[in-house]
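In this section we walk through a basic example: taking a raw amino acid sequence and producing a predicted 3D structure, encoded as discrete structure tokens. The instruction is simple. Fold the sequence below.
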Amino acid sequence: MDRRTFIASGLALLGGAGCSSHAELTVGSKNFTEQLILGEILQQALQSACHMPVEGRFYLAGSYICQQAILAGRIDTYVEYTGTAMAAILKQPISGDASQVYAYVTEQYQRRFRLDVMPSLGFDNSFAMVMRPDDARRLGVKTLSQLAPVAPQLRLGVGYEFLERRDGYHGLVETYGLHFAGAPRVMDLGLLYRALENKSVDIVAGNNTDGLIAALGLVVLADDKHYFPPYDAVAIVRPVLFEKCPHARSVFASLAARITADQMRAMNYAVDGQKRDAAAVAQAFLAKLRVT
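The resulting token sequence is shown next.
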């Protein structure tokens, strides 16, 4: 399926799904495990605080589909990452520290889209270049700079967005002078670690909070030139949500800075590695925070 067909299909699904919903509020998510868990956390917390039906409209492909969905009023909130917002949505080069990027994204989303950006949930989910530990030891690589001389021996696996984004593949290989063995293999994000484990690829562009990194004993190469920007997880909200439910503000306040990278990694592993239900994982986390 090419990119235009993929996007058209996603938008068509959004249109069809919106016609039959009776929910007062709708939470969206992208199409990978972490997003599903975060979507469940928002849905459950909002439903508890607002005392009204809250629909979960999950697996909405990537950033572009979620952005179009919230602008069209098909969803009221979803979790985005500040670096993604700046590069993929605002189409701006990413510079500055986490607070500067957050401030810019917040101002631009309000000015250009009339959308509110909530405070960070507490973790930064940067891209991570991940290898099998035996290969990393054999090749003597711990950083991305050390990867350059051996990259021609390695097959790279990536998700579609990483291949296309400003903060993704093309900038990475230019920054570090990388030349891999052939073109990157593009696959669904959920298949990256399976491909690495069964040796279909030798290095993948994963995410810092992926639960399978620690579970499989994989190695993350240090981004020693600081190519990847900050990716703080933030909820994007249509202001009408607060009109429908003033108590929603307390939900986002109670979640601000409350999810650490370790906690997110553990929740991701609970779903990906232990095959637990995402809704149950979210419920258990909220119970610990006493948000629900």
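Looking at the output, two observations stand out. The chain has two domains: 3-124+231-289, 127-220. The longest strand covers residues 77-81. In the next section we compare this with other chains.
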